[in-house]
Amino acid sequence: MTDKIILSQMSFYGYHGALPEENKIGQRFLVDAELEADLYAAGASDSLEQTINYAEVYGLVRDIVEGPVFKLIEAVAERIAEELLNTYSQAASCRIRVIKPDPPIAGHYESVAVEIERKRSTSYLGLGSNIDDREGFLKKALEALNTTKNTKVSRCSSIYETDPYGPIEQNNFLNMAVQIETLLPPEALLDEIRRIEQGLMRKRDVHWGPRTIDLDILLFDHYKINTEKLSLPHPEIKRRAFVLKPLADIAPHVVVPGINRSVIELWQGLNDKEGVRIWRKNNGEGKFGLFEN
């Protein structure tokens, strides 16, 4: 997509900065905003309702720059991007540049600025529990995900009861997969997932051991990441029946990056499909379509 709404060199007076004089005296800020969106319908209909109202965009940016004080223009840019993407669902991404034309530092330069780009992303997560109230832990994890800042649960698989994986003798799991829409980058999403696990008393004492809740990022857009903190796609995705079966419920035709095969192809080609049994079907009723009696 190449269609964009662009507002350039919006000028405001604010009090952002790390120095006391910036907070007291204030200074001029310039902001550029680009929102990527499909503008065909607006162009064909000549209707304001079919597009993003740039006068509204200006007002939202003004309220942030002229509002509460931030130490860093990085934080100003982040707040603008977040507000615009949360306000305009038709915007797929945005690029924000915040400029200080006259920063209070010595030297010869035209200005200082930060530029960020943020977008909506789709991620697929695997959930599992095999301690105490397994269904209750899944439900609490879903609710926590759905109330995480800039993140919403959009689809849920059915729940499957699965045999435990690995050498540890333990109870059967309940497993499921969910699709989320998020403005968070992958590493920030992982941090939020770990926070949810800690809140639900997840302990990591034993590898492949029992757990109240297990949350794994399986896929994140078409990202391929391999760091000490995070690997995407999940490195075990193609080998685990308890992952592929629920994931095939909600994303059968999504192609796994690096493997270049769809989820349903990986499921159909899996040699060992045993130990995965439907436990509760998602029938679309109740919250998340799962938790009605």
From TrEMBL:
<comment type="pathway">
    <text>Cofactor biosynthesis; tetrahydrofolate biosynthesis; 2-amino-4-hydroxy-6-hydroxymethyl-7,8-dihydropteridine diphosphate from 7,8-dihydroneopterin triphosphate: step 3/4.</text>
</comment>
<dbReference type="InterPro" id="IPR035907">
    <property type="entry name" value="Hppk_sf"/>
</dbReference>
<feature type="domain" description="7,8-dihydro-6-hydroxymethylpterin-pyrophosphokinase">
    <location>
        <begin position="207"/>
        <end position="218"/>
    </location>
</feature>
<keyword id="KW-0547">Nucleotide-binding</keyword>
<dbReference type="GO" id="GO:0046656">
    <property type="term" value="P:folic acid biosynthetic process"/>
</dbReference>
<dbReference type="GO" id="GO:0016301">
    <property type="term" value="F:kinase activity"/>
</dbReference>
<dbReference type="InterPro" id="IPR006157">
    <property type="entry name" value="FolB_dom"/>
</dbReference>
<keyword id="KW-0418">Kinase</keyword>
<comment type="pathway">
    <text>Cofactor biosynthesis; tetrahydrofolate biosynthesis; 2-amino-4-hydroxy-6-hydroxymethyl-7,8-dihydropteridine diphosphate from 7,8-dihydroneopterin triphosphate: step 4/4.</text>
</comment>
<dbReference type="InterPro" id="IPR000550">
    <property type="entry name" value="Hppk"/>
</dbReference>
<keyword id="KW-0808">Transferase</keyword>
<keyword id="KW-0456">Lyase</keyword>
<dbReference type="GO" id="GO:0003848">
    <property type="term" value="F:2-amino-4-hydroxy-6-hydroxymethyldihydropteridine diphosphokinase activity"/>
</dbReference>
<dbReference type="GO" id="GO:0004150">
    <property type="term" value="F:dihydroneopterin aldolase activity"/>
</dbReference>
<dbReference type="Pfam" id="PF02152">
    <property type="entry name" value="FolB"/>
</dbReference>
<dbReference type="GO" id="GO:0005524">
    <property type="term" value="F:ATP binding"/>
</dbReference>
<comment type="similarity">
    <text>Belongs to the DHNA family.</text>
</comment>
<protein>
    <recommendedName>
        <fullName>Bifunctional folate synthesis protein</fullName>
        <ecNumber>4.1.2.25</ecNumber>
        <ecNumber>2.7.6.3</ecNumber>
    </recommendedName>
</protein>
<dbReference type="GO" id="GO:0046654">
    <property type="term" value="P:tetrahydrofolate biosynthetic process"/>
</dbReference>
<keyword id="KW-0067">ATP-binding</keyword>
<dbReference type="Pfam" id="PF01288">
    <property type="entry name" value="HPPK"/>
</dbReference>
<dbReference type="InterPro" id="IPR043133">
    <property type="entry name" value="GTP-CH-I_C/QueF"/>
</dbReference>
<keyword id="KW-0289">Folate biosynthesis</keyword>
<dbReference type="InterPro" id="IPR006156">
    <property type="entry name" value="Dihydroneopterin_aldolase"/>
</dbReference>
<comment type="function">
    <text>Catalyzes the conversion of 7,8-dihydroneopterin to 6-hydroxymethyl-7,8-dihydropterin.</text>
</comment>
<comment type="similarity">
    <text>In the N-terminal section; belongs to the DHNA family.</text>
</comment>
